[in-house]
Amino acid sequence: MNIKELEEKSKAYRKKILKYIYNAKAGHTGGSLSIIDILNVLYNKVLNVSPENFNSPEKDIYIQSKGHCVEALYVVLADKGFFPEDDLLTLCQYQSPYIGHPTKKIKGMEQNTGGLGHGLSICCGSALAAKKDQSDVKVYTVLGDGEMAEGSNWEAFMFAAHYKLDNLCAILDYNKLQITAPNADVMGLEPLDKKLEAFGWAVRHVDGNDVESLVNTFDALPFEAGKPSFIIAHTTKGKGVSYMENVLKWHHGVPTAEQYELALADIDG
Amino acid sequence: MGQEITNIPKGVGLANLEVFASTLESLAQADKTVFAVTSDSRGSGKLVAFGQKLPEQIVEVGIAEQNLVGVATGLASMRKKVFAVSPACFLTARALEQIKNDVCYSDNPVKLIGISAGVSYGALGSTHHSLHDYAVLRAINNITIIAPADNFETAEAIRQAAAMDSPVYLRFGKKNMPEKIEEVEHATSFEVGKGRVVKEGSDLTFIATGEAVWPCLKAAQKLAEEHQISATVVSMHTIKPLDQRLILQLASQNTPIITVEEHSVYGGLGEAVGSVLLQNGCHNKFKIVGLPDEHTVSGSQGEIFEHYGISEKGLTQSALNILG
Predict the structure, then answer these.
(1) Segment B162-186, tens digit of pLDDT
(2) Is the same domain home to B162 and B27?
(3) B11 in a structural domain
(4) Which sequence ranges are marked TM in the entry (chain B) (predicted)?
(5) Which range of residues forms the domain containing residue A99?
(6) Does ipTM come in above 0.85?
(7) At what angle do helices B244-251 and B269-279 cross, to 10 degrees?
């Protein structure tokens, strides 16, 4: 898939995210729109994961630590053929398996996540197991910027460097807004690259809403032999829908009918 | 020193902790997918020899219990048989959300090993006591909870847990326990989820778990010798799922039931047994012996047991009181 095709995918994914959130009248809109280009590149260019190989010990592993942006993941997994996309019309409905966080009830999901600060530790264990097995399995997670305040992440940062897990890559969806306010006001993260480098990680910055930059960055993995890789993906919350971009209320805001139509036109625009 | 739970007539066995470590080592030698994960706890977990003999099968995470359980989850998801070993107090409090979400909810078959459980750490104080673990874990779906009483149960529990494809929490202390607590004619067997009747009687029943079973047997012996009272003693090693059938069978004798545990009287074995009795219309006289809802008295494990009546003397008195 070339860059142009990936860009078209991102547009289509954005519209589907909005479609299913609008239908469910629930979802994490802003974050799903900021994270989607990362998931697009992961599933269409990086991960060795498909419905056919999902039970194989040789496939790659993606665990979404930032579980609340599950709508983005659902849309991508449906596109990859893990389940019929129409299933998403039941999102968040009574007795639907398509709940508001990743769940193993859905094919394609590795673990149930949603509590923040869990995904990276699990990835560390999986990456270590792959090393022990001398397998080529690579392990990826996407973290949210708000969840970087969870202490468990920093336990895992220490572990990954100690065990030289260069088959592990963590991507930060750094849209710089969390539910209360900007990260900088809630609990400042900076200087993040220096902190992570001091913890023994190889760190790169990227425009996390630019698929070409993302492809090039993933192509460079591992950034340094013997070190886990961390991608600080600078993103925009609500990306692609101008009235949602960087606006706090769209953290889990649901568009009205009028706003929904406006958003679709904006994405096409 | 208060009355210690030693003076074991059949010869003192090992600490259940040591039996755990040697059993795990033999399992790991036979199966390269068996892993121990420790949080700077290989010394207190008696796993130093394991680490020396099988260095590729032990993973150290440092003093980071949340990461301990997360890493154990990741290993288990990659088809490893993982034993996450940490003091029960830290494992089941600091890492409770990882247990709830990563292990139980995500259904990863991690074996959580709570060492030096209950008040094993004695005078180190309440930071190091785990008197809440049955209560919190009972309320979490998809986990088996086991507290073996003696060396026999410990070895069997570890072997059976290793073969289970589901989450298990096992907890035990570090004091020497008998090799096998048993005063029945037929040798008893161990099966997860089935209580073990270690002494049969007709006047009352002690249903106990973990290291509280042994003082129950001592009390039963004293009751027989000095008061001509015949007590049944059950090791209810599996607290969840609870052996409801055995509890109702014991209740049908219409004699008093005393539960005994090294845990808060809230939310543990006693309340679990009481729930079974009440919901099945059983009106046996009933008493829960455990740690009351107060700041725990300071002292050794034996002194704390004695203080709260988890002792030969205390349980004898509880039996006499309930029989009136």
Answers:
(1) 999 999 999 999 999 999 999 998 8
(2) yes
(3) no
(4) none
(5) 3-268
(6) yes
(7) 70
